[in-house]
Fold these 2 entries.
Entry 1:
Amino acid sequence: MTEKTIYESMVERGLSRRDFLKLATLMTAALGLEYSQLPKVVHAMESKPRLPVIWLEFQDCAGCSEALTRSHDPYLTKLLFNDISVDYHETLFAAAGKQAEENKEKIMDEYEGQFVLVVEGSIPTKDNGVYCTIGGRSAIDLLEEAASKAMAIISVGTCASYGGLPHANPNPTGAVGVHDLVKDKPIIHVPGCPPIPEVITNTIAHVVLLGEIPELDSLGRPKAFYGQTVHDRCPRRPFYERGQFAESYDDAGAKAGWCLYKLGCKGPTTYSACATIKWNEGVSFPVQSNHPCLGCTEPDFWDGGGFYKSLAAPPGAEAARGAQAGFASLGGAALAVGSALYAKKVKQKAAEEFKAQKKKEA
Ligand code: SF4
Ligand code: SF4
């Protein structure tokens, strides 16, 4: 076991106490914790030793690893690589071959029950797992060995979480997610294709720093980052509420920022922080850049109903639906007439605005 705590390792690298406290404060916010949790984070960093992270990569495109290297949070990235220590990562590792494998074995034995295992990629199970082997061993074998010694597992990306693209019909390799094979360890899902870089780093930092599992939703995803749908925080939401939907990618509505629901947006059923944290240093995210959300953080991504097909019949105005729901509970005929008229009015207004946009464009 390494003796140095995270704080001591920082001091050794020349950070002052003031820098440390500043970092701890930023960390608290980044982990999605309330400010009152700052002493807990400070205490953890002062008292806990550096814990190793072993990152295994199986059947994937390496996009999640690439996302990790694109994290724009300099504090967290430095913390992760300099002070927390990603000790084994096949893609980012300088070492290779026998030396790398020996190092992994050594860490797993020395830190048994204490290291965090990160898995990227799905695990092919058909034909004894022959479709993904590393160093002559199947992914199933490598996963079982590492999982049995790990403290907890973080499945990074939709492939490791649910099988992802390799699992898509007809799933020729029998690809599955980690939780399909490992049943006796805490598993945190960080789905996305790829996940938002900061969501990866923050989740790993949470487990390694605090030594605990963050609060999870029913699908095993950290609530701090998967607690709301893309739709909940979407900048196009006001148009959805008013029943204003783009009909094609280059029509007047699309150019005016109208809702992409009819173009197949899965934002209403997709839990992700895309609309808040965004991508590329918070510059934008797909829906903001005029592309519908494809639902990449959900278990049925790829096979779940087609990418560019609308979820269901496009909704009427949300407000009007709310009014109709109100009618159901009140049973007032007058209110029913009122809500129907209101819905009609909203739709008429939307149609008028759309026509005006088109006219302006022409
Ligand atoms: S574009 Fe998608 S996420 Fe945004 S409001 Fe419309 S349906 Fe919701
Ligand atoms: S907008 Fe939707 S499909 Fe796109 S990255 Fe975010 S969650 Fe995935």
Note: Residues 192, 230, 270, 272, 274, 285-287, 293-297 surround iron/sulfur cluster (ligand 2) (CB under 6 Å).
Entry 2:
Amino acid sequence: MTRGFRLPDRTYLPAIFERLAIDEQDQHEIVAAWPSPDADPTTWRSLVRAHATLVADMGGFEPLELPAPAMDSTPLGRYFFAYVYLAALADVRRFHARRGIPDEVSWATLSDLGRNLKRDRLLLGDGGLRTSGWLTLHFRGSIYQLGRLQFTRMNVRAAHVADAFREGEPALGIHIPESGPLTPEACDDSLAQARPFFARHFPETPTRLAICTSWLLDPQLAEYLAPDSNVVRFGRRFRLVGEGYDGDADILRFVFHRITPRIDDLPQRTTLERAIVAHLRAGKHWRSRTGWLVL
Ligand SMILES: CC(C)(COP(=O)(O)OP(=O)(O)OC[C@H]1O[C@@H](n2cnc3c(N)ncnc32)[C@H](O)[C@@H]1OP(=O)(O)O)[C@@H](O)C(=O)NCCC(=O)NCCS
């Protein structure tokens, strides 16, 4: 059940911005471009439609494309999805409450909105939220941040199938937000939380299988990084399946926050930055790989 598209009351905005980790620059721009049905009737109708599509699938975890107008470069166009998610905040908070999700997990999860706004600015040079897909998971209640890692509810896809599991069976997807080092202790703690958390709050899809698809799982990284580096140790937790896909774009985007950069322009401060560039200069490519583990 949904109440329709309603943006949060402005008096609550400071508290909401803080909980969603939205930084000051984004706060200012979001408030300045705040939409209204009278001033922006066409965009308002699009917001209503996108929000309705999102909340109609509350609890869903298959990819969801939200209907949206052709993005223009006005602040309202750039922040279109931020308004959709701000309106969906009340809906997802109700869903979390019904599922008994602890408040701190709920807010830690939803604060990925602020992180994604920052990433958008880094990648594209100005403020906004131009990708809709990723955050539809958060605002549909299908991803949870448990300590260092995020876990999504998912079904095994054909590309993941290995001897140990079948297509269509429930699993958890592991994601690694950019929030400090990926220490083995923090990962142990997150992985230990995941099984009891999902067994308790989503008992209808019991699973011990966790799957990760990432540039972090490319075994070629071990040719450059120390065996006791966090990245290599993280990769060793997983059994790889399939061949993955070309990972150059992913690794450049996640490590350098760039889309199609010139190789000569990339910073060379860390072992990983130097490894990425040396590998590409040698005419080789990175792979994003899929691996699994049992929780
Ligand atoms: C995943 C992540 C937390 C790993 O960082 P970490 O714990 O510091 O990694 P390691 O300890 O293994 O680092 C090994 C080397 O790589 C460097 N390195 C790791 N991640 C780096 C990054 N994002 N940018 C630049 N250098 C990086 C480290 O500085 C270190 O080099 P140094 O010894 O010369 O300083 C980090 O890469 C990150 O935040 N990435 C963005 C999120 C992401 O990619 N998620 C996966 C999406 S599929």
Note: The mean pLDDT is 95.
